[in-house]
Amino acid sequence: VVVVVVVVVTAVVLSNRTDTFKATFIQECERRTPENTSTDCVEVWSAFEQAYVGRDPCQVPPEAYDHLLSVAPPQPACNRMLFWSGTKEVAHQVSEGCYQTMEDSMLGSVLDGMTWCGKEGSNETFTSGCPGWTECVNNPVRSFWSRASAEFAAVACGDAVVLLNGSRDTPFSPTSTFAKIEVQKFKPGKMKSLTVVLVTKDKVVANCENASLNKLKKQLKPGIKYICKEVTESKLIKCKKDHGKSCVVCW
Length: 251
Ligand code: APR
What we know:
Elements: H1 2-32, H2 41-49, H3 66-71, E1 82-85, H4 88-95, H5 106-111, H6 140-154, E2 158-165, H7 177-185, E3 191-200, H8 211-219, E4 225-232, H9 233-243
Parallel strand pairs: 1-2, 2-3, 3-4
Helix pairs in contact: 1-2, 6-7
The chain binds adenosine-5-diphosphoribose.
Adenosine-5-diphosphoribose (APR) binds at residues 83-86, 88, 102, 133-134, 145, 149, 152, 176-178, 182.
């Protein structure tokens, strides 16, 4: 009897785990999808799940999400694309109501802060016991952000902005997703310019003459104009507060 109870309880807990994650995913997808579009959130879920379910959680490459990104591609907002690196919090404070970050895209907003993985021989989605960001490169979470960021950058159009951290020695870090993936995907002809907004907290460590920013400038394909502005975090936040959700430029 004890064995049966344990088996049943475990089965219920396990299936609840998948069900809760799935329900949240579909609910958020629907909430974020305008009614006149053809996006079917159940189909989006299947495309998502198919990337990692039944697989070794250290063997999910970014390409596993190709189908998902074709079913739910990010919708660009020209002249309103905002990238960030080492500035997640302030970037989302500043973008609110105007700029579009990766996390404002449907998939980005559904999956921000989430952890998920599958297991060989199982059709479940697990939300704990999954490999950490650096534990293995090809883990489901890291691969999703790599693949989705590549797509987000590839559709960026008009004048784009990136918030970099001026309180670091190397604001344009070569190991970041922004440097490794996004910058490589920017398309001249689509993207007109990239404005680096170097945000400094209390300590100003880097300015626009920083060597890493020079590298960023050189990595931009010809046709994409490079601009750099320095601003303090407090000034940025105050400007945003004063102007609410309007699209006023605070740098
Ligand atoms: N361990 C855990 N999480 C990490 C790690 C790590 N070593 N490195 C990165 N991350 C996750 C964290 O969630 C972190 O907040 O990635 C996030 C971004 O890391 P940053 O170094 O701040 O920035 P970057 O790698 O450049 O990624 C941000 O990628 O998703 C796109 O459009 C988005 O422009 C943005 C960029």
